[in-house]
């Protein structure tokens, strides 16, 4: 995995201040949403604490920091499109989905169908970290996100989640 490629806006000081002009603010929001999704995908991290001053929100070279209320604004907008969900009442901790949960469920099912894994049981560990899934889009996916995507498939009758011993598994249909 190479270094993250920051968009040009990341080096533009006004990008770190919520803009007043409606059209500019709309473009800024779109860029921030894309940046959050791309950054989390690159880092392969589903969880994001918006109160932490991580490189995503702080450009040390510019000496600029995206304010906390602006971070919340971006995350709430991502939630409206199914790309994020808060995990706490204070809305500081978020799950970020660079694919929506519905998209993840489709990706998982398509893999199961094309790999001949239907009607067999896979552990969640095998799906997220197994030798058979290296190179797949969902390889290394956060287990909580994986479980939520599988629950969508289960509700559609496309799989069954199974608990056995100290493991969890899934059987695709």
UniProtKB/TrEMBL annotation:
Q: Which GO terms describe its cellular component?
A: ESCRT II complex
Q: Which GO terms describe its molecular function?
A: protein homodimerization activity; structural molecule activity
Provide the alphabetized UniProt keywords.
Cytoplasm, Protein transport, Transport
The record's annotation in Gene3D superfamilies points to: Winged helix' DNA-binding domain. Chain C. Domain 1 (1.10.10.570), Winged helix-like DNA-binding domain superfamily/Winged helix DNA-binding domain (1.10.10.10)
Has UniProt tagged this entry with the keyword Transport? yes
Could you name the domain of life of the organism this protein comes from?
Eukaryota
Q: Where in the cell is it found?
A: Cytoplasm
A Pfam family name for this chain?
ESCRT-II
Under InterPro entries, the record lists: ESCRT-II_cplx_Vps25-sub (IPR008570), ESCRT-II_cplx_Vps25-sub_N (IPR014041), WH-like_DNA-bd_sf (IPR036388), WH_DNA-bd_sf (IPR036390)
Biological process terms in GO annotation: macroautophagy; protein transport to vacuole involved in ubiquitin-dependent protein catabolic process via the multivesicular body sorting pathway
Q: Does the keyword Transport apply?
A: yes
Q: Which family does it belong to?
A: Belongs to the VPS25 family.
The entry's protein name is Vacuolar protein-sorting-associated protein 25
Q: Which organism is this protein's natural source?
A: Anopheles funestus
Traced from the root, the source organism's taxonomic lineage reads: Eukaryota, Metazoa, Ecdysozoa, Arthropoda, Hexapoda
């Amino acid at each position: 995995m190479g270094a993250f490629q920051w968009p040009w806006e990341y080096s533009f000081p006004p990008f770190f201040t919520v803009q007043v002009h409606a059209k500019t603010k709309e473009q800024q929001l779109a860029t921030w949403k894309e940046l959050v999704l791309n950054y989390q995908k690159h880092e392969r991290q589903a969880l994001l604490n918006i109160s932490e001053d991580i490189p995503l929100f702080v450009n040390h070279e510019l000496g600029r920091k995206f304010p906390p209320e602006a971070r919340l604004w971006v995350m709430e907008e991502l939630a409206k499109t199914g790309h994020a969900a808060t995990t706490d009442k204070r809305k500081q901790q978020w799950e970020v989905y660079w694919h929506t949960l519905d998209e993840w469920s489709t990706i998982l099912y398509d893999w199961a169908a094309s790999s001949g894994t239907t009607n067999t049981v896979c552990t969640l560990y095998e799906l997220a970290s197994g030798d058979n899934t290296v190179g797949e889009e969902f390889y290394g996916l956060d287990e909580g996100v994986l479980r939520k995507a599988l629950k969508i498939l289960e509700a559609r009758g496309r799989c069954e989640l199974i608990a056995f011993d100290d493991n969890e598994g899934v059987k695709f249909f």
